[in-house]
Amino acid sequence: MARFHHHLFVCENVRPPESPRGCCAAKGGGDVRARFKEELERQGLKGLVRANSAGCLDQCAHGVTVVVYPEQTWYGGVTVADVPEIVAALREGKAVERLRIPDAKLTGKAGAVDGGATR
Ligand code: FES
């Protein structure tokens, strides 16, 4: 059974072209995930880091949206050109700050479901 140290969830959600919310598929979400898979293998992280396809991550205005777990690092406006830098940063335990969605712009509630401290 695979045990991954990190998961990259890449939004590939599809909405009709007339949708006011837009969607990450139209912004290249599928290509971004495919590029992550290639780059993870190239940097020797296959089996350690998994690039998963995700439905809407509810950060549509920032698409293509990617979230890294367990770090809870949210990236927005990700393109295929950004992928090597994101993977390299992950290898070093860092984040690519220029792509990070600021906490104040994230949807969802701050806090922890078990009442404990947040990361
Ligand atoms: S469509 Fe990608 S975050 Fe909503």
Write the layout of secondary structure elements.
Layout (H helix, E strand, L loop, with lengths): L5 E6 L17 H14 L6 E6 L11 E4 L3 E3 L7 H9 L28
Parallel strand pairs: 1-2
Antiparallel strand pairs: 1-3, 3-4
Bound molecules: FE2/S2 (inorganic) cluster (FES).
- First CA to last CA: what distance? 27 Å
Task: Write down the secondary-structure element order.
Answer: EHEEEH
Overall pLDDT: 94
The assigned CATH architecture of the domain at 24-105 is 3-Layer(aba) Sandwich
Bound molecules: FE2/S2 (inorganic) cluster
Describe the structure.
By secondary structure, this protein is α+β, with helices and mostly antiparallel strands. The radius of gyration is 14 Å and the shape is globular. It is built from two helices and four strands. The chain has helices at 29-42, 83-91, and strands spanning 6-11, 49-54, 66-69, 73-75. Helix content is 19%, strand content 16%. It has a four-stranded mixed beta sheet with strand order 2-1-3-4, with helices on one face. Helix 1 (29-42) links the parallel strand 1 and strand 2. It has a domain at 24-105: Glutaredoxin (3-Layer(aba) Sandwich). The protein binds FE2/S2 (inorganic) cluster.
Please supply descriptive tags for the structure shown above.
binds FE2/S2 (inorganic) cluster, four-stranded mixed β-sheet, Glutaredoxin, alpha+beta, 119 residues, 2 helices, 19% helix
